[in-house]
Amino acid sequence: MSATLAIGKAFALLEKMHMIKVTQIRYRARIVAAMLLLPILALHVARAQTYETGFETIVKLTGDLYLALDRQHRPALSATPVLLEKLSVPYLQSHLVDATHGVREVYISKGCVDLLNFIAHARAIDAANHGFFIKSMARLAMESGDRGLPDLMANSARNGWSFPIMNRQAGYFNQMAGSAIGIQMAHVCLGHYQKYAAQLLDARNQAVRLGRVISAAEWREAVMMAARSGMDCGLAVDGLKIFLESIDKMPARPPWRSYFIPDAVTGKEISRINRELEQMQQKAFLAFER
Predict the structure, then answer these.
(1) What is the dihedral of CA 221, 207, 251, 115, to 10 degrees?
(2) In order along the chain (290 residues), what is the average pLDDT of each group of 10 residues?
(3) What's the rounded Cα separation, in Å, for the pair 70 and 234?
(4) Each residue of 49-74: pLDDT tens digit?
(5) Angle (deg, nearest 10), helices 267-289 and 238-248
(6) Contact at 8 Å (CB) between 257 and 290?
(7) Helix (H, G, I), strand (E, B) or coil at 98
(8) How far is CA 270 from the centre of its chain?
(9) Which residues pair with 103 in a beta bridge?
(10) What residues have CB less than 8 Å from 110, skipping those under 6 apart?
């Protein structure tokens, strides 16, 4: 074998070995890169399966609703709600925090925030997975709420956490939360808490829910006032209608129901109110188009 040929084979062998090493290095680099990306990917999935809507959203909505009130009503209300973070039961009611000036704040529990997300997400999923909403509400009705709400089981639904569904969920949440807070504000503006002040404490000095004593007509007045304030803030009534229907049509009445629908209100009255809400929204749209 000539020296030239031998040298050529030697270079070819070295080049082959070099390519093998390069390939191995690239392969190992890809593995390392993939391992480094795993926490990021896992974090992305975790974030995708959490709600963007929560108490911070409710704080913003409350501020907007407060500014939408007539100036004469603002001194009696706080523009910021209070979160009962450790309370897993759905709870929503205003409390007197300044007796001298008659100022009330809306208190909302973590359980109530969870409830709004639960209903909003279930309804959003139902658009593509018919029957999911009814099943979810039946499961919700069986829970007292003492240990928190049941799992929504959104992962069992097709595209349960997809962008279109979560976008719809956020819209429903905003409408529901804005309406719920708005109703509490309306009760103060309409003088309902003042009227029933003597009945909001029992013989043992325990707080009594306004929903236990208020009349159906008074509650309807507060709902309509809240809906008008909500529309002034850009909130449609669809979420409020869904919220009222879903709680009213539960197979069983959970103990916390009267925080949202008074005992005196029947399903027939809920249906009538929802028709009135739809008519009011249509009139508002027609007026806007003009």
Answers:
(1) 80
(2) 48 47 45 42 49 97 96 96 95 92 94 96 95 92 76 93 96 98 97 93 88 96 97 95 92 88 93 96 80
(3) 17
(4) 789 999 999 999 999 999 999 999 99
(5) 170
(6) no
(7) strand
(8) 21
(9) 98
(10) 55, 83, 84, 85, 86, 87, 88
Measure Cα distances from 186 to 23, 115, 219 in Å: 71, 21, 9
Helix axis angle for 110-126 and 238-248, nearest 10°, is 100
Q: Residue 69: what residue type?
A: L
Q: What is the pLDDT of residues 181-214, one digit of tens each?
A: 999 999 999 999 999 999 998 888 888 999 999 9
Residues 51 and 39: their CA atoms lie apart, in Å, by 20
Query: If you ran DSSP here, which 8-state letter would residue 135 be given?
Result: H
Where do the structural domains in the chain lie, given as residue ranges?
1-48, 55-289
B/e letters for 137-175, b = 16+ CB within 10 Å, e = fewer, are: bebbbeeebeeebeebebeebeebbeeebbebbbbbbbb
Report d(CA 127, CA 242) in Å as an integer. Answer: 13
Residue 118 and residue 87: Cα distance in Å, rounded? 16
pTM (global) more than 0.85: no
Contact call for residues 33 and 150 (beta carbons, < 8 A):
no
Cα 5 to Cα 10, 13, 131: the distances in Å are 9, 12, 78
Structure tokens, 95: 């409390």
Q: Tell me the pLDDT of the chain averaged across its residues.
A: 85
Per the listing, tokens 């027609």 go with 286
Neighbours of 273 (CB within 10 A): 20
CB atoms within 10 A of CB 55: 16
